Amino acid sequence: MAQAQFTRETGSGGEFVRQPNRFTDRITADSGSAPGGGPDAQGRWPVEPGRYRLIWCRACPWAHRARIVLGLLGLDEVISVGTVDPIRDEAGWRFTLDDGGRDPVLGVEFLAEVYRATDPDYTGRVTVPALVDTVTGRVVTNDYPQITLDLSTQWRAYHRPGAPDLYPEALRPDLDTLIAEIFRDVNNGVYRCGFAVTQQAYDEAFTNLFARLDLLSQRLAGQRYLMGDAITEADVRLFTTLVRFDAAYHGHFKCNLRKLTEMPVLWAYARDLFQTPGFGDTVDFDHIKRHYYGTHPAINPTGIVPLGPDLTGWTAPHGRG
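and the corresponding C-alpha cells:
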C-alpha cells in the first residue's frame, strides 16, 4: 500500500476514513446554564454575545462554511473571529498571522494549546473550525456540521435584520438528505480521492464524485439554488468545495475528469455565489493553494505551489437570476 497522508485515517482497503469530531458540545438557546456558566448536564452552553471565538482557516472548506454563515447572519458582531496560518505543520494550526504570533484574544500560539487545555489526552488531528469559550479558554465544539446549523437556529435573537433563513424548518427533511449526499460524494469525496492509497479506493471515490456533480448540475439547470430561489445551508456547503475545485482538487487530489470551468451549470452557479456578498469576499486563493500543496508531503513531496489556475473568470457575468 502506498504511503498515507494520515495513517490513522486510512482504512484497510486504502480508503480515507475521516476522524470523528472530538468536541461536540453545543451552544443553544435552551441551555440550562446561566450567562458565564459552563455546559449544562446535556452539554449545552448558553448563547452569550461576546463570549465565544470562532477559529478558522481561509484555506479549509469546513471552516470556510462557518465563516460564511457567520457573516451572512451578521453574527460576526457577537462572535469574534480568529484566523490561523494556512500552513499546518507537525505542531498544527498556528496564529502567525497575528502580531507576535499569538491570537490576541486567547493568547496562544497554536490551536493545539486550546485542544490540550480542554483534553490533555487528545492525540488526534487538531482541526478547524473550532468554537472556543474565551472565559475558560476551552474548546466548546469542533463539530463542523452542527456549528453552522446552530448558528442558524440557536442564535436567531442576534441575527442581523433581513438575515437569510439558511435552514428553513419546512425544507429540513429534503435539505438534510441533500446535505448528506453532498458531504459523502463531494465535500468529503474530493478528500477520499486525494487521500486514497489504493487504486480501487480512488476509483470508487472518483466515480461517485463526478456522478454526484452531474446530478447537481441537472438539479441546478432548472433553478437558481439547490433548494429553489433562496440560498440555504446546502449552497454554502457545496460552494466551499466548488471554489477550491480547480485551484486544488482537480490537480492535487486527482479529481481531473473535468474542471469546474468545464461544467457549465456548476461553473455559472459557483460564480453566482462567489459574487454574492459574504461568499467571494471570504475566499483567499493564495491561502488555499499554499495549504493544499504545501502541507501534504505524501501527495506533493516537492511542496511546489502551482501558479495557476486563471482566476479572472470568477468575476465574469454568471447569467443566473
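(Above: one complete record from the training split.) Residues 199-220 form the longest helix (22 residues).
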